[in-house]
Amino acid sequence: LAAIALPLNIHPALPRIRGVGHDVVPLVERHAAVGATLHRMAPVVDTGEILGVEEAPLAPGHTHATLRTFNQGLSLRLLERLCALLAASPGPAELEARLRASGAAARHAWGAYY
Asked: Which of the chain's ends, N or C, has fewer CB atoms near its CB within 10 Å?
């Protein structure tokens, strides 16, 4: 990670679901919303600074397969936002500053369980 100026990852779930289970946990726990999380990568999986979140209500009737597809769509929307900011930024430091300034992650924090 130290060799990359701005190591980013798009996690296919809201930050409260670290690691795996993004296509099952929201169904089992009956979450109101699902999403994708853009974060700075850190040595411990899904702990880095949250820089953006794409969130949508969890509609009834999803199965694990349809939820996986829905989350992939949310991840792609987050990637599109990231690409637009990347294209408008002269370098990694400016991109990181723009991501932080967007405030898209302000009310989100990583969940305690993995």
From this structure: N
